[in-house]
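HUMAN: Ready with one sample?

ASSISTANT:
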Amino acid sequence: STEPAQRPPHLIANEVTNGTDTDWALIGKYALAYSGPFSINASVPATRKRGHVLHGPLTVANLPSLEGRILARDYLVFKKGGEEFLNLSITNAEARRRADVLWMRIA
């Protein structure tokens, strides 16, 4: 999360004794980390700027139930203010919720 209320500012990595269990649980509740291969979904029309990416099967995840799963995301590459961005998003229509991850190219 990037929301200040969900990110206790006094916590320091590798020093878990500097905050309460509640502080650290808050970080864990709003943070998601995972790793695994990714590919462009060939069954969805795609361009260099827009399409569908498959991430997985996940080999590592801080949420164990995600390990072995494949996550599907829409991608959009765009420019704004001279900078180039990649946005990955997923929409859950039933829950009326959307999650986005945004990266900016730095080199």
The radius of gyration is 17 Å. Strands lie at 34-35, 38-40, 50-55, 60-61, 71-80, 83-92, 97-104. Residues 21-29 form the longest helix (9 residues). The mean pLDDT is 91.
